[in-house]
Amino acid sequence: MNSKTLNSRLAGAVQWPNGEPASRRRLACMSASLAVLAICAPTAALAQDGGATRLEEVVVTAQKRVQRLQDVPVSVTALSAESLIANRITTVRDLDALVPNLTVRTFVGGASLPTYTIRGLISQGSAVGSDKGVAVYIDGVYLGSATGSMFELADIERIEALRGPQGTLFGRNSTGGAISFTTPDPSGEFRVRQRLTVGNYDQIRSSTTVDTPQLGAFSARASYTHSERRGDTRNLGAGKVWDFTPANGGRTTLLASPSRLGDSDVDAVAAKVKFEPSDRFKLVYSFDWTKETLTAVGQGVVYEQPLIKSIIAAQPNQALMTQISRTRPDAVNNAGVVPTPVENWGHALTAVFELSDHVTLKNIAATRRMKFSAPWQDFAGAGGLINTGAPIFATLLGPALAASTVGAPFMVQATTSTGEDEQWSDELQLNIDTNLATLTSGLLYYEQTSTRAPYGEDSGLGRARSGAFRVYPGYLVPFAGQAIGTRGRGTTVKSFSRAAYAQGEFHVTPQLDLVAGARYTKDTKKGLDNSILSGTVATVFPIYFKKGKWTYNLGVNYKINSDILTYAKYSTGYISGGSLAGLIYEPETAKSWEAGVKADWLDRRLRTNLAVFDVKYANLQLGVGGSSLTPPNPSITQALVTAGDAKARGFEFEGTFLPVRSLTLGVGIGYTDFEFTRLSTVVTASSSEFLVAQRPDWTANLSAQYTSEPLFDDVAMTARVDAKWKSRQNGVPNIPASLAAAEVPLYKAAQVINSHWVVNGRVALQGFKLGGADATVALWGRNIFDDKSPTFVTSLVTMITANYEPARTFGVDLNIEF
Predict the structure, then answer these.
(1) Is residue 4 in a domain?
(2) Is residue 68 a part of any domain in this protein?
(3) 404 three-state secondary structure
């Protein structure tokens, strides 16, 4: 569509078909009730004086063209630059529960790996060669790597979170939804903006942005951000020096465990150059680079089997052990943690050519790279252990090894990983907007090379190795005296994806549109899998996957009037399959019904957006460790399996209200009823019970913002409070069949993540002058009431470990703009 014209056409609703199951009819009745409430409740107030204050129009690109949010038949939440500042959002991590039916958690370990849940679909994509069901984009460029994608962008204009399968326009990687970051283009006017933050935990953040004036057809924009903070958890195992010299072919490599856990030190650069010789043609080159050195957040312990308790009971210094805690402790012993560097950078060239007022051609060519190194991470959280010579160590290590390593460091679960991803893509888009139809079509070529390996070099004893119940005399890694102790190798997978897509909105009447779209994708994956080791011998499996897949959507949009849009649609999506550790995993698919009402009321002082959905997932992909397979294989550090099928139904509601000129109220509610309809024996054979895990039924957020009249001159005060909530959820999917009967209720209780609120606030003075510049100063706080609940729990069968809500932080912002 022509970027100068926002499409105001809109969408309609359909009845649920006869013969649907009772659960779907109940969902339809609930949906209808909510829709009537959304429509009828404000109707009585329409006669009231609406005043001059209105909600601002929000522009999105949720259908790969510029549209008003209220004209898009998609369940999408859009956060503007002002919202990002007010909510202090700098990475996808900060979107957790801020968007209905979206949760974002940081996986255990040091690679900054996000885990998303949207509408019951869990998206991780950590296994080499695998894809994720929630696609992340920067300026239209897909980020293929999940690992390291939690990085901080230097300059963000808007974030859009799309819920539900987006398989037609966004492709195979969006069965759950998509998250799109948009960065600002150069303005062509000279402008300098400086943002400075200081806060507790030695927090400092400085962000400088410069816009150049237009020079002929050229303009530019550049940003640099530095951010650092101290971790919120003390490490009782600080100062332990691990010697990775054997892993690096004899080259001296000493890495020390840090004093604080959750440290972060970030540098980020972003730049854009725009060439716009006419109103019809625009060429934008963009570059971004981020480097972060971090330490994994504090890993606590919420449950221990008697086996682990006996190991800890044998330790001479109990004060240095991680204590069992259902809430975030002040200190844990994560002696096996060392700092992790993560680096991301990318180049993109975007060309937009308006062939006429109705036809626009766009091409996005991009390349990106990511690399990380997580040399040593303590998954168990129980660091600082030594082999005391107690009988339990002979059982775990074998009598000979246990007797020869008394006094040596011992780890319950050590993990090590390095990785690099390189991708190249080119997408050609054609948008046609006429009185008869609006068409969005395109061609995509995408390739990615991914490598994952244990830390170290392929020389000497070999790389470090992940594993359970290991001993490391002299803190040497690897130690060749134990099984599976040496010769770790890397696995490389090359992925190719080619796609063609088209979606049309056919304008039957000024109010009624019919929508149809389809996409064909051809995926190929090739590589050699070295992930299984036995001593010094690697078992190598070839990786090969090649398959094509159609995805499509059908919909109807009906616009009751200029302020009320209704829509209904059926859409599909999928995630490609593949193999890992010699195990094949099938493509994962999603088929979804969705209906919605988007409405503005009271002279656009009230906005209500409601979407209801019913989705079926098939061949859900689940990441598991070798010990969870049937039969168990401890040599496998990670595998993907086809776990089964599931269905989910629910709704998202978002409302914004300006009751008076100076006050804005917001609410967001998401509900997902998820259940498995089929489970594979590969995941159930080792379980006495398989749970719906990491999927809260409810998410909610509330906000209130008050802006005063000028206190003096043009200076006004803005006060804002945000609260987000997640309902109770299971943290791990399976109850191990190996548990003793007496341990089952203890295990089930420990793995639960209870419902909890997190409250943030900000008070700002804005509109005053500082040395001739416009300035804003703000006092802010995050997690004001210091909630300490677990956010992510991990089962190692013998114990359950946890990450927690970050500790309360507070500080002062100073924003200056010339």
Answers:
(1) no
(2) yes
(3) helix
Q: pTM of the predicted model, to two decimals?
A: 0.89
If one counts every other C-beta atom within 10 angstroms of the C-beta of residue 747, the result is 21
Average of per-residue pLDDT across 256-285: 96
Q: What is the pLDDT of residue 4?
A: 41
Domain count for the chain, please give it.
1
Across the chain, what does the average pLDDT equal?
A: 87
Q: What is the pLDDT of residue 49?
A: 34
**pLDDT greater at residue 52 or residue 172:** 172
DSSP letters of 189-234? Answer: S-EEEEEEEEETTTEEEEEEEEEPPPBTTEEEEEEEEEEEE--SEE
**Cα–Cα distance for residue pair 343/326, rounded to 1 Å:** 33
Chain segment 309-318, per-residue pLDDT in tens: 999 999 999 9
Is there a domain that residue 7 lies in? no
Q: Any idea what the CATH number is for the domain that residue 371 is in?
A: 2.40.170.20
Q: Alpha-carbon distance 521 to 549, whole Å?
A: 5
Which residues, in sequence order, are CB contacts of 402 under 8 Å at separation 6+? 387, 389, 393, 394, 396, 471
The residue written with tokens 């060749």 in the block is: 480
Which domain covers residue 68, as residue numbers? 22-817
Does any domain span residue 3?
no
DSSP annotation string for 694-743: S--SEEEEEEEEEEPSPSBTTBEEEEEEEEEEE--EES-SEEETTS-GGG
Q: What is each CA distance from 811 to 199, 228, 382, 441, 706, in whole angstroms?
A: 4, 13, 33, 47, 20
How does pLDDT run across 29-39, given as a tens digit for each residue? 434 433 333 33
- Tens of pLDDT, residue by residue over 629-646, are 666 666 666 677 888 999
CA atoms of 378 and 368, how far apart (whole Å): 30
Identify the three-state secondary structure at position 24. helix
Q: Is the pLDDT of residue 698 over 50?
A: yes
- Radius of gyration of the chain measured on its C-alpha atoms: 27
